[in-house]
Amino acid sequence: MKCEAKEIFNCMHTSINIRKIMALLLLLPSTLLLLIMVFLPLIQIINSNQSSSEVYVISTLNSTTAETRNCNMFSGQWSPYPKGPYYNNETCPYIIEHLNCIKFGQPDREFLKLRWEPYDCELPLFNAKEFLRLVQGKSMAFVGDSISRNQIASLLCLINSDANLVDVTREYTSKDNAGYFKLWYSIKHNFTLTIVWSPFLVKAMDDDPYGYDHSLSRAMNLYLDEPDEAWVNKIVNFDYVIISTGQWFLRPMNFFENGEIVANKRRKEDMEHNLYGYRKAFQTCFRTIINLKGFKGSTFLVTHSPNHFEYEKWNEGGYCNRTKPYTKEEMLKYYNHWNVLKSFHDVQLEEFREAEKEARKKGLQFGLIDVSEAMAMRPDGHPGKHGHLYYNNVKVTDCAHWCLPGPVDTWNQFLLYMMKGISTPI
Ligand SMILES: *[C@@H]1O[C@H](CO)[C@@H](O)[C@H](O)[C@H]1NC(C)=O
Ligand SMILES: *[C@@H]1O[C@H](CO)[C@@H](O)[C@H](O)[C@H]1NC(C)=O
Ligand SMILES: *[C@@H]1O[C@H](CO)[C@@H](O)[C@H](O)[C@H]1NC(C)=O
Ligand SMILES: *[C@@H]1O[C@H](CO)[C@@H](O)[C@H](O)[C@H]1NC(C)=O
After folding, report:
1. Is the Cβ atom of 190 under 6 angstroms away from ligand 3?
2. pLDDT tens string 283-331
3. Which of 71, 79, 117, 340 could crosslink 121 through cysteines, CB 3.0-4.6 Å?
């Protein structure tokens, strides 16, 4: 399969990190594959939140860490910003097709004219030149799922005009595994940027290796104490590693530890089970990074990204048609997946804090990019019904990924802010 630079993200949809189902992949149209990879995990998140009118009174997220001690920039509000986005569908060739909301008929433009304002300080706008100065002679790896791709596409768009990036994937990988990762290089800045597909972070195998089970509820076998080789050796020489994944932990999973099966759960609704796997996967991931021989880079965790299906389940006509952000109060009142988001977020934060202490002892930097609450306030930022994905001639509604441009660009403002904090300690 030929993957042009601007199509890479689509191409990557057709290459799951499991060789054994390659045969299956060839049988499936890419839209169905996208459904499996992207939407299946959402079944449960929706199942566990059937009522959208239920009110959850839970305290908001607490992401105080060493890096945010002077100002928690993840706590704030979305404010009008009439200047609008950094780029558009004409100026950026890296926009993922199905996230190109404006091109495909998203009537709303207001969602592009908002800016994240932390309560206690100012989050600077993204400055491509500043970013490129920081990464001069350096390398950056994104590790994770399609939400991670969403962020790297945003970053590519943000630095595109200054960076002169060239896709050099072919020089570093065989044709066979080209979809597993992607590599860009900027000669001007001697900067290497890569993305490694690893939605579970740990070793994962399809429960149905022969591909007989074509159902959307196929289980995955996760080897919770073994990191996914896809990223382990790739990141050793990288200066920045950005970890971002989550939604896949909502699908049916069997767990293995020490090579033995410890939990066999194909049942759909078991949040405790999902959270156990999620916690272990992050433990294994962080432990591996901290003990990775020769690794000297800075690691950033991007926290769980919220989805905003409303009215019905995602696969039963659920959609997201809001055109305004929530205030924090509205979010706590109306956001129907808040308790699931908070559970996942809390697990991530607990594991991150533990790992950060260990990392510090070894002189390694760990930074937190806590997007969960800010993004829970953006039900208006998804493609929704205005995407252009079709499955069996029916348009797929996407309330999980983020339009490009869109609020996901803010994640890279956070990233740049954190990178500056690390290069000049506060
Ligand atoms: C937030 O977390 C920090 C670190 O765990 C803790 O010291 C602090 O009390 C927490 N703040 C709130 C408001 O829960
Ligand atoms: C960009 O979006 C506009 C709709 O606002 C559309 O008319 C145009 O064809 C798109 N251009 C590209 C290059 O996708
Ligand atoms: C690019 O950066 C790497 C890592 O800092 C360095 O070893 C190498 O010499 C640089 N190459 C050029 C052409 O500047
Ligand atoms: C979203 O859809 C619901 C149900 O169809 C409708 O009542 C509501 O007015 C819509 N909201 C917007 C902002 O269009």
Report:
1. yes
2. 999 999 999 999 999 999 999 999 999 988 777 778 899 999 999 999 9
3. 71
What's the gap in Å between 103 CA and the centre of ligand 2? 5
CATH 3.40.50.1110 at 5-423, yes or no: yes
d(CA 223, CA 102): 41
* pLDDT given for residue 103 in this prediction: 87
Ligand 1, atom 5: closest residue by C-alpha: 64
pLDDT of residue 120: 86
Return the ligand number nearest the Cα of 324. Answer: 4
51-55, 289-293, 417-421: least confidently modelled range: 51-55
| C-beta of 89 in contact with ligand 2 (< 6 A) | yes
Cβ contact 373:60 at 8 Å: yes
Question: In this structure, are strands 220-227 and 253-257 parallel, antiparallel, or unpaired?
Answer: parallel
Q: Could you tell me the distance, in angstroms and rounded to a whole number, from the CA of residue 104 to the centre of ligand 2?
A: 8
**Sheet of strand 365-369: strand arrangement:** 165-167, 181-186, 191-197, 139-144, 240-244, 298-302, 365-369
pLDDT in tens, 148-171: 999 999 999 999 999 989 998 877
Instruction: Provide the residue ranges of all domains of the chain, joining segments of one domain with +.
Output: 5-423
Clarify whether 401 is annotated catalytic: yes
Judged by phi (left if over 0) then psi (alpha if -120 to 50, else beta), residue 58 lies in beta
Residue among 88, 102, 109 to mutate when testing ligand 2 (max atoms within 8 A of CB): 102
The verdict on whether 146 is a catalytic residue reads: yes
139 catalytic per annotation: no
3-state SS class at 196: strand
